[in-house]
Amino acid sequence: MTAMVLPGVRPTHKAGRASAFGLAGRLSAAVVIIFTVVALIGPWVAPHDPQAVDLKASFWGPDAGHLLGYDAAGRDLLSRLLAGARTSFLGPLVIVGFATLLGSSIAVAAAWYGRWLDSAVVAVLDVALAFPGLLLAVLTVAIVGPGLPAATLALGVAYVPHMARLVRSAALREVGRDYVDALRVQGLPAVRIAVRHVLPNIWPIVIGQAALTLAWATVDLAALSYLGLGVQPPQPDWGVMVAAGQSGVLQGYPAESVVAGVCLVVAAGAFNLLGQRLLRRCEGARAR
Amino acid sequence: MRLVEVDRLSKSFGDRLAVTDVSFTLEAGTTLAIVGESGSGKTTIARMLAGLETPTAGRIAVCGDDRSRPARRASERRDRARQLQIVFQDPYSSLDPRQSLSTCLDEVLRLHHPAMDRAARAARVAELASLTGLDGRQQSALPRELSGGQRQRVAIARALAAEPAVMLLDESVSALDVSVQAQILNLLADIRAATGVGYILISHDLAVVRQLSDRSLVLRHGRVVEHGPTSEVLDQPTHPYTRLLRDSVPRPGRRPARPANS
Amino acid sequence: MTLLSLKALRVVLPVGGSDRQVLRGVDLDIAEGESVGLVGESGSSKSMTARAISRMLPPGARVDGRIEFDGCDVLGLGRKELRTYRAHDVATVFQDPRAALNPVRTIGDFLCEGLRLTMGMPTAMARRRAVDLLAEVGIDDGERRLRQYPHQLSGGLLQRVVIAAALAGEPRLLLADEPTTALDVSTQAEIVAILDRLRRTRGLALLFISHDLDLAASICDRTAVMYAGEIVELQASTELHRAPRHPYTIGLLGARPDIEQALPRLRAIPGQPLAAFEAPPGCAFADRCAHCVAACRADHPRLEQLSTALVRCHRAEALQTHSPGLAKGKVS
Start and end of every ABC transporter domain (chain C) (predicted)? Predict the structure, then answer.
């Protein structure tokens, strides 16, 4: 009987914080930093022109000066990978930046004003969440026409509901805390309380969710490019490379698809782990 | 001087009546206690006085200004802030976890005194800190580095920063340890003597009510069941509910013998 | 006859990689049918004492010393014996009854499950027994209550249900950990009256944990005052109020506002309550004490007999000769 009234034993928050990040978290943070640097300087450190075609070298394996070998058109794979990092890695950053900004603004506004606005936002979010983001993006691109800007915008919009839903629940909890009421009684303008007090306190959760979303965005943008709806060939991009490498896979030269695919998986995995660790740390810090 | 005038105040949430026909006044330099248990409507009254809820019916005036309707202009909100401030129960949720006492007070001072320069604000922060018994190290400490009692001092300092005529103490000492509670009760009495501020003390603790208040109002299910000088309300309660509350207070050597009825 | 005996009980919890002492040597006996109050402020580890007794400490906790229940070594119990111990010997009631009940299951499910599992009763019999148990805690319409869900009951009623559940295994000791703190004053009086009656009718021993000296005194034969993970004073409840010996007890009694009269000034104890792990080598209360001398900081005082009381204070004997008014502590 007494066992039923046993309260759940959870680790104290300090212990939770120390173990929450761990080796995997630090490793994924390092991967994200390395990839970001590569994305920024990739085109300049690429050993060769990623667009330079040399049909004689088609499907050649690695040799001196060409560490990963050549693709079907005889272009240097390493150079294309480095140059492709820009769209493959920074594209998702733009997408998530957009979704985070719009999503958290909507969420904080809904949590702050409550009543009809909150009900309306929740209803719209529920409907929007019923559609898979990628499908929505495919439809949008199909209407607007393919290309990186359209794909980025479409995915950005598609992620807004995910972001908004999580941030709203965090913001609701924060708005319900007494200090928000105390500041209202002090006569502080609502916008100031929301931006200077509520948002900074839920910021870690926003960042954690953004990192998770980055993982999806990396895969989804690559998928759009793979389908020919995103980045257009011959511009180097990991999604494009996976698609372009397909003919090579059939002929027994899988290098192009594999290296691009591995980069995508590593990037998505790192974002995912990092996001989870960040969110777990927030939860640990809250459970005091 | 009449600081607060509440006349036939009512509030309903949907078809549930939280507060019905409550009237009271508060004079400068005195304390009115609003006594009640959970569901008595005492917190709803506090939130209406603070402008966090809008009354369904009735009138609230603080310092002669009507505040039955939400403030529309920013200047009106600031004026109301200087009339009435609130100190909440839970010292853990009533402070922004990212703000130290200094930054918190500085923000409030900038809002209410735009003409004050940085040095003048710092001087006022130090003054408020010493008034509430906080030392220099505690001024720059984040809330998580402070104890419950120290946080409650910060919350009181924040309320005082607006130099309000009325302070609303919403169960402000009930979450504190007994030894610290006495410090805060003494501090509140000192502040009242020094500044002439009027208190509205929301509490379920009759001993605290006795210690700090001049007049008391006993609420049950949103209605006033007894209202008068605290000594009379506690010594000669006329309403059976007040007597029940009075008799429920534990005392050493007196076996609890209330019939257990469900 | 001693039912429960704690001997030099020490508990260390791992917190963020380092060890934190929460109990610094607690000695306490509870006789059969006796009610003992355990009173302290935050950080005193009064709840940890109860958790140690019911062997419900967080994982990684290291326990030192002895816990004996009816002559049997509690710390040495195996998994199966421990289950029997918790089901039939010691029951616990916590502060928040809502946390103890599953919101999607009825009161009947909650009560009967325990009866079926621990007492091996068939369902129909368990329901009849549950109704009896509810009647025992002052709930007359038990049949109807068994069909209700936790959210349909007030906090006071839920706490009675939890107490009824605690009685299901016919325990001999009830640990009540701040059982009324989350409740209204008038409900608190009811719950305390029920606990008091139960222990008389059933001969149940009670360890009543509270932050309120007056409340503990109203139902406990003896009261132990805890500070920073150890007992600083232990004596009969009425005596504790009439002639407190430890400066901390004196301070606590003096700090509380008086329901009978407004005082010109409360005798507050300066400073903050200390947690057990923050305690200095000497007396833990030294920094807040008006009677502190050099010896208080140098030596850790032992719990010693002083007339009818056990007191952990170097100065207790010297202070005893003063008038009680003098011993009331600093005014801050």
Answer: 6-253
